[in-house]
Amino acid sequence: MKIRAFSLAAFIATAANAEPSIHRLDGHVLSARAAAAIADKELKADHVMGAQIAILNRGKLVWTHAYGLRDAEKNLPMTADTNIWAASITKSVFATFVMGLVETHRFDLETPVAAMLSKPLDQYAPYRDTAADLVRDPRWARVTPRMLLAHSAGLPNIAFLEPDKKLHLHFDPGTKFAYSGEGLNILQLAIEEKLGAPLDVLMQRGIFSAVGMTRTSMVWRENFRADNALRYDASGKFLAATRRDKPRAAGSMATTINDLARFVEALLADKILQPETRARMFTPQIAINAARQFPTFDAGTSTEGPRVGLAYGVGWGLLTKTKYGPAIFKEGHGDGAENYLICFLRSQSCMIVLTNSDNGELAFRPLLEKLLGDTVTPWEWEGYTRALILGNEEHSGHP
User: Fold this and answer.
1) pLDDT of 275-308, one tens digit each?
2) CATH second-level architecture of 21-70+82-221+241-371+383-390?
3) More exposed terminus of the chain, fewer Cβ within 10 Å: N or C?
4) pTM above threshold 0.85
């Protein structure tokens, strides 16, 4: 009995202290130590200032890793709880919030946005100088929230990048894919007017607090200051702090790898949306055969996307026919912020990478391939090949 008791105790102690393992999509298993070594080597080689990485298996967080610095001048390390700018990953979290409104019959995806607003778009202060031509376009009356979330309305990504710096529809709504941050911000206006509250308050109540994302917000909070990532360009030069004072559905969210992993866990476990609603969100709305996601209206086509069933759902990018089953994804890009999130739904295996560096995208493909075994992301369409990244250092028009 004593021998058996000792053996059981030893087994329990060994199990409790066992190093976590990462199960890749291809069946290979990585230890946490091996994963950290791979990540550190790649991030260092690509001169990434700081990064946070998380991997989920079977819908549960199994590994997080923090690399580098959140503040180079003060030599402060990045941590898994450092606030970092999520950039356009905000869009998919916002879309999830919107689907919660749809599920509870507080919002409709099919009612045209122009009909939702109490006055023409160009009579709202943010759009007085940019939306007059859009409002006069008869096609504007057909643009729905579903189209805006699926990036199929025909709007530009950023009005400032238009030749006249104004909003226009570039094609008949619902007929093509063209990524548009402007569309998400217009949808935000409609939701704020309908619900009578600013988006930061609505999402704090509807998503962040409900999921336990205590270090996530659509706007700056003073308690972020003590552990906040500064942002750096490709040469390591300081660009800006992570701070947004106005909520923007297109990209103002600050978060942490731990919080974003909590969001993904809750989403996959149907704790945010009912299974039917989540399935609707991940249903393809528009197929994509473009050679590149950016420039937004580039006419080039490719077979890369169709090979993996590249499409857009309601606020999420989709890969509908990979050898690992369907996947959802979202990128984030801003000055000194490069981020990526992908989840393979059949195995509920996910990887999230957040960085505070313009060099972050250089590391995405090798990290996703070596740590998760993801060989199906359409790298050319995303612009995540070294040649494309280094050939487009201004990153104009990215998500």
Assistant:
1) 999 999 999 999 999 999 999 999 999 999 999 9
2) 3-Layer(aba) Sandwich (3.40)
3) N
4) yes
